[in-house]
Specification:
By secondary structure, this protein is of the alpha/beta class. The protein has helices at residues 15-27, 41-48, 80-91, 141-148, 170-182, 197-206, 219-225, 236-243, 254-264, 280-287, 292-305, 310-320; strands at residues 2-6, 33-38, 54-57, 70-74, 95-99, 112-115, 123-125, 128-132, 159-162, 186-189, 210-212, 228-232, 247-250, 269-273. The chain has an 8-stranded mixed beta sheet with strand order 3-2-1-4-5-6-8-7.
């Protein structure tokens, strides 16, 4: 059995659980899988909507590892309980894998480490296999489809995709939408966990031209159809790059600032700073250099970096080391 250990994250919301759910869905045909998470209302609601076995508890790290071949950790932080589970796995011969998907996450002494946002040479170090860089971006398979699709870019920016994370507050979203509406942009928005249905209706009524992604709508398509994406400095950088959509990276802490700066050097996006600093003038100035030629070059740079085959490469490593069938 492959066990995925993930929780609702303070920085990225349900993203770790979503990733674990579709990785588990890909593996479950040939490998028993289970997701273990802390008991939380939003977590329970999400996992109940998936076709993956799961366990919720106050102390999920006290799980029995009998019959388990590997534990995949996708956690922003490791505390005493998580470290105890990692040590128990090591003693019983269970492989440990860590996925680092957020800026500032601390690397742990696991058997296999996956860090697609950090660009270091993929290597074996002190017995640990380190899979680094965008070649190992663990994106949904639909991003591969849109990565290969041909697209035509508009002369001027018209449609903007807002994907600023599950935990974006309504007041911050409304201020952003108001700014973009005044600049006459159309918007598609990935709704966060804290956004109520009434909030969505109000925004669409007050700001015509703003729409929300539906539950079944792939974010890959939303990125692909946009002329520009507004994303946090996290794994959304990889999503925008794979879809060939130029992006502006917002940063809320020093770790995100460093990450945004390193990715801006690849010319696939621009680092902006904190969302609170966004005004009509500052946003207009930020996008002023993004003419058609510049955006086409940014899109090409993004697609070159992220080809959408990271999951296949990750699974090949797991198979080569006897973790999965």
């Amino acid at each position: 059995m492959i066990v995925f250990r993930a929780d609702l994250a303070p920085q990225t919301g349900l993203r770790p659980l979503r990733r674990c759910a579709w990785l588990a869905a890909l593996l479950k045909k040939n490998n028993p899988v289970r997701i273990c998470s802390r008991e939380e209302k939003k977590t329970a609601k999400f996992l109940a909507s998936q076709s993956i076995p799961f366990t919720l508890g106050k102390d999920p790290d006290a799980m029995d590892l009998d019959g388990v071949k590997a534990v995949v950790f996708n956690l922003p932080h490791f505390f005493v309980a998580e470290n105890s589970l990692m040590e128990k796995a090591r003693r019983t011969g269970v492989k440990t894998i860590q996925i680092i998907s957020a800026a500032g996450a601390i690397r742990q002494p696991v058997d296999i480490l996956v860090q697609p946002l950090i660009e270091t040479e993929t290597r074996t170090e002190d017995g640990q296999i380190v899979l680094s860089g965008p070649a190992y971006a663990l994106l949904h398979h639909k991003f591969r489809h849109f990565q290969k699709a041909r697209r035509k870019y508009r002369k001027n920016i018209k449609n903007i995709f807002i994907s600023l994370g599950d935990l974006l507050a309504y007041r911050d979203l409304r201020r952003l939408v108001d700014t973009l509406h005044r600049l006459r942009f159309k918007m598609k928005i990935a709704p966060g966990l804290n956004l109520k249905k009434a909030d969505k209706r109000n925004l669409m009524k007050i700001y015509p031209g703003s729409h929300f992604c539906g539950r079944s709508e792939s974010p890959a398509r939303a990125y692909f159809e946009a002329d520009l994406a507004l994303v946090p400095a996290g794994e959304e950088i990889l999503e925008a790059a794979a879809a060939g959509t130029p992006a502006i990276y917002f940063c809320q802490d020093p770790a995100q600032e460093a990450l945004a700066a390193s990715w801006a050097e690849h010319q696939a996006g621009l680092a902006f700073g904190k969302l609170e600093a966004l005004t009509l003038d500052s946003f207009r100035d930020a996008i002023a250099p993004l003419d058609l030629e510049r955006r086409e070059a940014m899109a090409a740079a993004g697609k070159k970096l992220v080809d959408g085959l990271g999951v296949q490469r990750f699974f090949k490593v797991l198979k080569d080391h006897g973790v999965i069938a």
